[in-house]
Design brief:
The protein is an alpha/beta fold. 42% of the residues lie in helices and 20% in strands. It has 7 helices and 7 strands; from the N terminus they run βαβαβαβαβαβααβ. α4 links the parallel β4 and β5. The radius of gyration is 16 Å and the shape is globular. The N and C termini lie far apart (37 Å).
Length: 230
């Protein structure tokens, strides 16, 4: 059965590969990101199953634009993958208020605004998947330069638990995957020169399975997905 999913941060890395893989098994994807050119490339993979919308999640008007797009197409959502992220790698003493605000806007407030605006579009048994990081997993090893990013991702973990408590009565499941090292551009920004044990295609495959099936086994869970530190 064809289902409808929204993926943010779909212009590169894990989000790009996840959209491709969902379309490959017959599901419809609305892919969003800021990079129109990269989204156009993604759409070419499956023109009938991947729709695109260039949008900036830090713009408070974006969630309503996405909701209107879904409404115009008479589309309800079976799931959302909050994949968009921003990492600023700076020592704590050099992080400005603007840096903190930028990281929180993308990693935390973006999912908050989008989920709030799209509540009416979720089907019963919809599955919301928050993509966090091992840096935001309590008790995990932390690394210099990533205090803002890790803090924002830690907040996403708590948001997951809170939303699961509130949306459970609507039949909507909310879970969080805290990813370890994946060979993406963001990983290379955080850990220059390091080689990750997992590539974006592999991680996208795991997230794809979890999006489709994880809500049968989990709700309100914050799950580490990592082989190593980082």
């Amino acid at each position: 059965m064809k289902r409808n999913y929204l993926i943010t941060g779909a212009s590169r890395g894990i989000g790009f590969e996840l959209a491709r893989q969902l379309a490959d098994i017959g599901h419809h994807v609305l892919a969003t990101a800021r990079n129109q050119q990269a989204l156009e490339k993604l759409k070419l993979h499956a023109p009938g199953l991947i729709d695109i919308l260039a949008a900036d999640l830090t713009d408070p008007a974006t969630p309503e634009m996405i909701r209107q797009r879904l409404s115009d197409a008479d589309t309800s959502l079976d799931g959302v993958v909050h994949n968009a992220g921003l990492l600023i790698n700076k020592p704590f003493e050099k992080l400005t208020d603007k840096d903190w605000q930028s990281v929180l806007e993308v990693n935390l407030l973006g999912p908050v605004r989008l989920t709030r605006t799209l509540l009416s579009t979720f089907t019963e048994e919809a599955h919301l998947v928050m993509i966090s990081s091992m840096g935001g997993f309590q008790g995990s090893k932390k690394f210099p330069g990533l205090s803002a990013y890790s803090t924002a991702k830690g907040a996403v973990s708590i948001l997951t638990e809170a939303l699961a408590a509130e949306l459970g009565e609507k039949g909507v499941a909310v879970n969080c995957l805290c990813l370890g090292a994946v060979q993406t551009e963001m990983f290379e920004e955080a850990f220059p020169g390091m080689k990750a044990p997992v590539n974006p295609e592999e991680m996208a495959g795991h997230i794809c399975w979890f999006l489709l099936n994880g809500h049968r086994f989990y709700n309100g869970k914050v799950i580490p997905v990592a082989q190593s530190d980082p």
